[in-house]
Amino acid sequence: MSAASENGMDEGLHDQSSYRWPIPPAEGWTADDLDRIPGLPPHTELIDGSLVFMSPQTRFHMRCMRLLEHSLLDQVPDHLDVDREFTIKLDRRNRPEPDILVVPVKADLGPDQTWRKPEDVLLAVEVVSPDSCERDREVKPRKYAEAGVPHFWRVEKDEDKGLPVVYVYELDPATKSYGLTGIFHDRLKVTIPFEIEIDLTAVDRRRGGSEPA
Description:
Blueprint: E1 2-3, E2 45-47, E3 50-53, H1 59-75, E4 80-84, E5 87-88, E6 100-104, E7 115-116, E8 123-127, H2 133-146, E9 151-157, E10 164-172, E11 177-185, E12 187-190, E13 196-199
Parallel strand pairs: 5-7, 8-9
Antiparallel strand pairs: 1-3, 2-3, 4-6, 6-8, 9-10, 10-11, 12-13
C-alpha cells in the first residue's frame, strides 16, 4: 500500500483529469468517511486520519491470504468466523484493513456491515508487503494492541525458501502491547486462541493437493 499525500492526491496522478481526488478536511479524515468518499480504490485504509491506498498485490501475498483463509475456515470452532480484507474501526482516525480476521459469529451485523469493532476481533493477521513493512511490522500491530485485539500474526516471506514465516503474538493486557510467543517455519501449530495447524509449505498448493506446474 502507498499513503496518499497530505492534499489527498498522489503526485504522479495530477494529469488524470478524469478523476477528482478527495481533498481532506483540515483535521483529517474520519473512520466513517471511508463509507462516504466516492470513488476510493478498493481496500483503502485510514491511518491517523490519512488515506492509505493499496498497491498491486504480489503473488506471494495473495497465496498466503488464500492459505490462511481456507485453513482457518476449515479449523476454527463453530462459534467463530473468518473475514478476509475487512476493516476494523479502531477509533475516529484509524480504520485499518487486516488481511485476515477471526471474529465471533454473533458479531455479524448483516450483509451491509463494512467494519468490525476491535472488541469483536479475536485475531488479526497481516501479510507483510514490500511497500508496507513499517505499517505491518510496527504501526498497525501497535494500534491493534492498544485497541485490545488479543492475538496478532505477522506473516513474512522466507527469502531463501519463498515460504511464509509466521510470527505469533499475544496481548499483554497490563501493558497493552504484544509479546512474541513463537516463530513458525514450514508448519504453524498453536493451541491459543484455538487449536490450529497449518502446513505453510502448501502456500502454492491448490485445493485437492496438487501444486501448479
